[in-house]
Design goal:
Length: 497
Amino acid sequence: MRLPARRLLPVTAVAAASALLTGCFAGAESTADAAGGKRIRVAMMQPPRSGLSPLSDDAFKLSRWSTAETLVKLDADGDAQPALATTWQQSGRTWTFEIRDGVTFHDGTKLDADAVVRSLTEAATASPKPRILDGVELTAKAAGNKVTVTTATEDPLVPQRLSSPQLSILAAKAYRGRAVDPVGAGTGPFELTKVGGTASATLDRYDAYWGGKAKAPGIDVKFVPDGTARAAALRSGEADIVEAIPVSQAAVLDQDLITEVPMPRTNTLYLNTGKGAFKDASLRAAAREAIDAEAIVKGVYEGRADVAEGLLGPALPWAAELRKPVTRGAEAGRPNGAAITIGTYTDRSEMPEVAATLQQQLQKAGFKVKLDVREYTNIESDALAGRFDAFVLSRATVLDSGDPAAYLYSDFASGGTFNLSQFTDKGVDEALKKASDTEVGDARRAAVIAAEGAVLAADAAVPMLHERVIQGDAAGVVDAAHDPRERALVTVDTHVK
C-alpha cells in the first residue's frame, strides 16, 4: 500500500471548513466590549468525551479556556507555584494548603476551605478516579481557611498532583447531578456559559476574577476533529486560534501564523501482552525490530518530530542524560504470518498514516496486519479493554503532574487505569513504586529512568517518536499561550486586535 502524496490544501477544503465553522463563529468577530475587544474564536481538535467533566481528560479543555482553576500551578520547569492556594507545607503524610482569600466562583459563591474539600473529595472518591490519583489514597479536611490533604503513604508529589486540571476546584452547583457540570462553576477569568454537546462551547469574561479583568470579552469554541478543516479555518480567517495543526498542513500555511514547540508527547505502539500474538515476548521483540521510526518521522511527520530513544523525549532533557542501554529479556522470533490487529484513531491526522506505515513494516517482517481506525471517542473503550493486538497512541508523558512517574504508573503498572498493553510485571511495579515514592530531584529522575528501562526491557510498548505541538494564531492574536503541557491556551492576557 502506497501512502498518498502531500498536497496543498485545495480551495474546496477551505470552503468546506468555512461552512463547517461559520455556524459557531458567525457574528463573533463583530461582538466587542466597550473598549473594542473582540471575542476569541478557537478551533479545537477533540470534542468533549465526558460532557466536560473535570474528572476526565475534558478537564484540560477547561484549563485551556481559563475557566476552571486548581490549588497549584506549574512553572516552565515543572515546579509548583501558588494558584488558588497561596502557601503549603508538608508534615509526613499531610500537606497543609492556605486558601486564597477574595476568590468567588462564577455563580457568585465564595471560595473557601469547604469548597476545596468538596471538590477534592469528589475526585478522590470517583469511579474511576482521575488519572492523576492512580494508586493514591487521598483525603481532605477543612480547618479555617486551610485545607489539609493526607495520603495513605508519604507522597512527595502532592502539590504537583493538585496542579492537574482533573483536580479543579468548582462551586457546589457542579456536583448536584449524577455528572459533574462545570457550567458557571469555575473561578477563572472566563465563565463557561453554554455547551453545545460535542460541537461547541461558549465562555464570557468573568469581571469579578480575582486575578484581574481578562482582555478579551469572551471565547467561542468549535470542536473540529478534522485536521484539514482546522488548518483551513486558519487560512480562511474563520478562527483566531487553532490547536494541533496537522504536520501535513503546517508547511503550506503562512509560517508567521504557526508556532512549533517540542513537547512531552510520545507516539507509541502499545503491544497487548495479555493475549494474542504479542503475549509471546519473542514476537513483541520481532515487532520492535521491524519498526523503522526514522522512516515514520521523515515520511509522515516531514521531519517535524524527533526519533524516540525512550518513552521520555527531548522536552525532558535530563532523560537522555540518565538513560542507559536497555537489556531485553527476549530475542526476536519469527512471526510466520501471525495475524494482528492494530487500532488507532482519526482525531490526530497523522495517526492513520503512522498505522499504515507500521502495517507495511510489520508485514514485511512476516506479520499479517489488519488496521482498525475510528474516532477516538468510538475506539477508546475497546483499546482499554484489550481488544487490539496493538494500539498506536500519541501520549502526553507529563500531562498530569509535570512529572512522568504518574504517566508511567497509569500506562504500565498492573493497576494503572490506562494500561493499553494489559501489562503486568512485578519487577516493573516495584520500579514504578520506587519512582513514585522518591523525593523530587535527581534521585527521583534516576528512578523514573530505571522504571522506563524496565518497561522497555519487556517490550510492552515501542516508543517511535516525540511530537512537537503546532499551533496556529491569526495575525491579530496577542499573547496566546504556547504550552507544551497543553494546559494553557487562552489566558487573561490573550486578545484579538
